[in-house]
Amino acid sequence: MRDFGGIGMRDRGSIRMRDFGGIVLRSPARVVRPRSAAEVVDAVREAAADGLDAVPRGLGHSTFGQSLTTGVSLDMRGLAGVREVGGRHAAVGAGTSWREVLAATLPHGLTPPVLTDHLDVTVGGTVSAGGIGGTSHVHGTQADNVLALEVVAGGRAVTCSPAERPELFDAVRGGLGGHGVITAATLRLVPAPERVLSCTIPCRSAGDLLRVQREVRAEHISGQVKPSEGGGWRFEAKAVLYGDGGAPPPGTAETERLAYADFADRMRPDVAELVALGEWARPHPWGMVFLPAPRAAAVIGATLAEMAPDDLGLSGVILVKALRDGTVLFSVLRTASPGCASVAEMLAANRRLLDRARAAGGTRYAVDSTG
């Protein structure tokens, strides 16, 4: 790597990049690791002068090449770091992972109100996509909980918020990088509980799972569909109560009490196991759609009726999350494991899911790999 105007850079052909999806590969003309908003401005200007796109990339957790480019790849990890934790907010660089944010806020007894299940994704990446977690039925998306942003747009670095350049603020959150490059964010924080009670509630069907998510009062709630030992599928809601008080919801079959930090990082041992097994590095053709609540159970049921466990992969997961705006996020997170359905077959199934969702009045979640 050579240094160019203070910006780390690699030339075309020296690197071939993939994202977590592992389906799309691209060779950027150059890779730049900016260390400030000013360096992002320079990199974007130089890319435009060369007729190239400039695409920000954090930890590369997109699933169909959204963080890849044949132009200039902006490695936003050069902008990682928590700059301030004060009051009920944290100021962070866009390349900061949510794990790093949480490590800085928990000593103050604070947490972001919405965390993704997997913490090793960046603030800029999830804010530009939306960012959904188990508390989104209460707090909305991660993008809804941003107080202000620093953005490179129109050839300069500017700040925006609900009061300052609100149009840009609204366009950049969930804008997938199409309206500017996020370089820093001020995040809303809320008090963090010391402990949580995780309650597992078996459900009879997709409709029953959605009913439980609507009716149960819990700070964190999610749903999962798993292969049944006797064939078919079984449904399970997970309701998580914050603090030491509160009785398990009706229908609870199993409980577990955890420290909040352990609960927030609950995926870490699973990821370590998947890495060891080689599953983490396999292609991940994920299909994710938003569905109107009244028609969600029908779409979920029709999708499951045409699926077998091999269509999901050995480490694939099916998630169902009812959101606060009356929509349901249905996520079929496939892994192209050896001996299971091929990548092409999984992508074709994703397209059928998207067609079915659109016919029901739904839409795709733009981080998926519909193909």
Automatic annotation (TrEMBL):
Keyword tags: FAD, Flavoprotein, Oxidoreductase
Transmembrane segments: none
Protein known as: FAD/FMN-containing dehydrogenase
InterPro entries per UniProt: Cytok_DH_C_sf, FAD-bd_PCMH, FAD-bd_PCMH-like_sf, FAD-bd_PCMH_sub1, FAD-bd_PCMH_sub2, FAD-linked_Oxase-like_C, FAD-linked_Oxidoreductases_BP, Oxid_FAD_bind_N
Record-stated family: Belongs to the oxygen-dependent FAD-linked oxidoreductase family.
Keyword Flavoprotein: yes
Gene Ontology molecular function: FAD binding; oxidoreductase activity
Domain FAD-binding PCMH-type: 24-192
Native species: Actinomadura meyerae
Keyword Lyase applies: no
